[in-house]
Design a protein that fits this description.
It contains 9 helices and 6 strands, in the order βααβαβαααβαββαα. The chain is an alpha/beta fold. Belongs to the phosphoglycerate mutase family.
Length: 243
Amino acid sequence: MAEFSINNDSHSSPHPDYAEIVVVRHGETAWNASAKIQGHLDVELNETGRQQAAAVGDRLSREPKVSVIYSSDLQRAFETAQIIASKCGGIEVVKDSDLRERHLGDLQGHVFHEIAKTNPTAYKAFVSKNEDQEIPGGGESLVQLFDRSTSALLRIGLKHKGERVLVVTHGGFIRALYKWARPNGRPAGNVLNTCISVFHLYGEDKWTLKVWGDVSHLSETGFLQSGFGGDRTSGSAIVSHLR
């Protein structure tokens, strides 16, 4: 049986008994700002997103050293990871397609507030309470996203026991990790652009969530509100509020 805890107080130094995995959502894109659904479509950061990435990179550079950065291979995550790496002394960035956002099928590329009318079949699948429901057009179900997300984090954590590693990924992916760590907990809330969450992974049957959704690095930059705007297009975020 897995063990869970949560503590938003602080980041800690690496410990030989576990991997400390720092999970960061990518910076803002123009599609985030305009409520356009991205999924697996490859959209680059906008200027706000680049400055958000620089802010989280500055923060991480002052914390215990990260040994390696794993990133989704989609541009918005990989560019965020590269900016962070440059702030932290040129750490290696490893692309990993398993860290991608949820595939949202026929909804990808459409503005969220229009999809109930323009794509009613896909929209119905998207808001379904059946977590095995796939989205037409090759989209993943919530169960498929959950399995991919948790398997990827376990794989990385078991490889880097005793180290502090960074994972740069997407809102839906991060929400799946929250559900994994807090299956009976309160709703996840907003998953903002460049928010930080920290997991301690001891093994397949024990992991703890130590920090959730921290964006204190944005509080004095002027980009916190943009982070909230971007969150509205996180696919799983919308599902969690509607279900």
